[in-house]
Write a structure and sequence with these properties.
By secondary structure, this protein is mainly α. Helix content is 73%, strand content 4%. A two-stranded antiparallel ribbon has the order 1-2.
Length: 92
């Protein structure tokens, strides 16, 4: 891979990370702290929604974002011809 392709690959990787971390920050900080009073007006199974986001929602969101990152990076790696495994090497 030439220098221009590496720079393009890294730029797209950083953009993906920035978007996903922004979503996580908005969910964890926004839903768990800033908008907790408004969200607490809604209850799911007698649990205020703001409390749920502060306790579980941001963690679940983070796990989903990790899965999205892996999926998108696999697509990006294929696009740039990057593989994690050496051809012809078998692991036992």
């Amino acid at each position: 891979m030439d220098a221009q392709a590496r720079q393009s690959y890294w730029k797209r990787n950083l953009r993906l990370m920035a978007v996903l971390l922004t979503v996580w920050a908005l969910v964890s900080y926004g839903a768990g702290i800033l908008f907790v009073e408004q969200l607490n007006q809604v209850s799911i199974m007698q649990i205020p929604l703001g409390f749920w986001f502060a306790q579980q929602g941001s963690i679940i969101t983070f796990l989903i974002l990790i899965a999205i990152y892996v999926w998108r990076m696999d697509k990006l790696d294929k696009e740039y011809g990057i593989t994690e495994y050496e051809e012809g090497v078998h692991h036992s």
